[in-house]
Amino acid sequence: MKTLSTILFGVVFLFLLKILTTMYHQISNFYTLYNNQATHLYFYNFNKEVLVNSPNLGLLLISVITLLATIGLAFSLLKILVVCKNMSIDTVFTICNSGKIIFTGYTLLFFGLSLSLATFVYKYYFTGLTISYHFTDDKAQQGYAFGYSMAFAIAKYLGIYVVAVFMLFLGAIIKKGVFLKVENELTI
Questions:
Q1: What is the mean pLDDT of residues 66-82?
Q2: Residues 55, 28 contacting (CB under 8 angstroms)
Q3: Could you tell me which residues come within 8 angstroms of residue 123 by beta carbon, excluding any fewer than 6 positions away?
Q4: pLDDT of 28-71, one tens digit each?
Q5: Against a cut of 0.85, is the pTM above it?
Q6: What is the C-alpha separation between 92 and 85, in angstroms, rounded?
Q7: Of the candidates 100, 113, 85, 117, which has an alpha carbon nearest to the alpha carbon of residue 168?
Q8: What residues pair up with 42 in beta bridges, in sequence order?
Q9: CA torsion angle for 40, 42, 46, 48 (degrees, to 10)?
Q10: Residue 131 and residue 118: Cα distance in Å, rounded?
Q11: What is the mean pLDDT of residues 132-142?
Q12: Which residue has the higher pLDDT, 28 or 123?
């Protein structure tokens, strides 16, 4: 169990470093958007150049939401590091560990949604491929552009959603296991 917890600790620590880098980029996004400068928008794993001529409230809002999501994710990854430490001393099945894992699952869901929202806004409003659909009167073309952009945004971060659901499931199983363990200890 010690080897597994050490490997998991290393993987979580590397992901935490990636999230801290993302936090830095989000602060940089917010600063350059606030000062109306040409900027590279950076949301987790895509980096696109966008020329901002005037304050864009939507981009500022998305930058703040993604920054808050990365801060929450960094906090929950610190909790997972504590769970890894508990694994190394063979205290896995506790309510505290279950709560930390469930919290990380919800944080990952919020993080994935914020990244999907950022990708959707970029894809729907700022790409040359779909921008022409906004200026037509044909509702079918606008609907196609909207649906394509939304599907692309969700599919791009599907792995995060899968890991989030797995974390929620794992947390629920550990919580149920703790209750069964306590019930079994009370049985004579």
A1: 86
A2: no
A3: 130, 149, 152, 153
A4: 777 777 776 655 666 655 566 655 555 566 677 777 777 888 88
A5: no
A6: 9
A7: 100
A8: 47
A9: -20
A10: 16
A11: 56
A12: 28
* Higher per-residue pLDDT: 109 or 185: 109
Tokens for 168? 């929620």
Tokens of 79: 């909790």
Question: Distance between CA 138 and CA 125 in Å, rounded?
Answer: 17
Query: What does the H/E/C string look like for the chain?
Result: CHHHHHHHHHHHHHHHHHHHHHHHHHHHHHHHHHCCCCEEEEECCEEEEECCCCCCHHHHHHHHHHHHHHHHHHHHHHHHHHHHHHHHCCCCCCHHHHHHHHHHHHHHHHHHHHHHHHHHHHHHHHCHHHHHHHHCCCHHHHHHHHHHHHHHHHHHCHHHHHHHHHHHHHHHHHHHHHHHHHHHHHCC
d(CA 96, CA 103): 11
The answer to whether the beta carbons of residues 42 and 27 sit under 8 Å apart is no
